[in-house]
Amino acid sequence: MSRFIDEHRGRFGVEPICQTLGVSASAHYHRATGERSARVLEDERLLERIEAVHAANYSCYGYRRTWLALKREGIGVGRDRVKRLMRAHGIQGAKRRGKPWRTTISDPTAVRRPDLVQRKFTAERPDQLWVADFTYLRCWEGLVFFAFVIDVYSRRVVGWQFASHMRTDLVLDALRMALSQRRHGADVQLVHHSDAGSQPGLNWSSQQCVGDGHYGWPARAARGPVLPGLGG
Question: What are phi and psi for residue 39, nearest 5 degrees?
Answer without folding.
Answer: -65, -40
